Amino acid sequence: MKHLVLTNAHFIYWHLQFDEWIKTIGYGNGKETAYASNIKEFLRFLETNNICSIKDVNQHHIGQYYQYISNRPKLRTKGILSASSINHQMLALRLFFDYLLDCKEIDYSPARIPKFRISGHNPRNIVTVDEIKLIYKKAKTLHNKAIISCAYGCGLRRNEIVNLNVSDIDLKNKTLLVRVAKGGKTRLIPLSDIVAKHFKKYLKFHQNNFEQNNFKQLPCFISSNGSRMRGSKINQTLKTIILNTNNHELIGKNITLHCLRHSIAVHLINNGAAITFVQTYLGHSSIDTTNLYAIRRKRKSAILRAFR
Questions:
Q1: I need a surface site. Which of 50, 118, 119, 206 has the fewest CB within 10 A?
Q2: Separation between Cα atoms, residue 96 and residue 65, nearest integer Å
Q3: What is the architecture of the domain spanning 129-298?
Q4: Domain positions in the chain
Q5: For residue 228, what is the DSSP state?
Q6: What distance in Å separates the CA atoms of residue 276 and residue 213, rounded to the nearest whole number?
Q7: What pLDDT was estimated at residue 118?
């Protein structure tokens, strides 16, 4: 939306501040980002509707803007905006108002409306830090602790755990190589000291059951019949561990392997990890996907402020 020109000094200031912030967290390459362009269109919409201050924006205005972008024609081709383009516009609004919240320019985000969902999927449940400690405690075997370390400690997808080989784990350099990732990409994951310790104990135990020459080429997780362990069986192992906690709240969350992957992402961001680091860590092709975890963090922060 570079052709749009803002005239309100208040809007110009916050548009520029937001664009700089977006670039700082790794979304831009020096040019105006798509997020900032979307916000420029929104601010221009406010100007045409005689709204002069961001503090005056409420949920009704967000709803009006949603209707506007849902019906306005595309700029370069025929037709109206796609659902994904509209979702991106609404994501930009959420980021913008979350940023304003952090800057203490506003007291609440009018863009936090349930009807404007980023996708049609239900948000995955996540475990708390205390709950993950309990899961580790109840994972009695070295095999089970290694599974938890893959899903939570390394943030692996279910298929990535299935395809993991012994040779992919480098204990000397404390790294784990994901060879068969989503989209055919590979990535190298750093291992924390505690995760490396769990892998070291498990692999030593695992090695005792096989010949030394063949061990490194083996799957990391093998079923009772000697074949590569299936994802459904690995997920069922997690379910059994959680049932053994006897924690009804945790059991009620219906935690899966992928929920543990989501949990480590949220925990990393809550502890100050850069979005670009988490993107690489999880193997996301788009940083937009990773940013959903940052949104979850900011939503929680906003709720806490509201109830102080």
A1: 50
A2: 14
A3: Orthogonal Bundle (1.10)
A4: 9-121, 129-298
A5: B
A6: 39
A7: 40
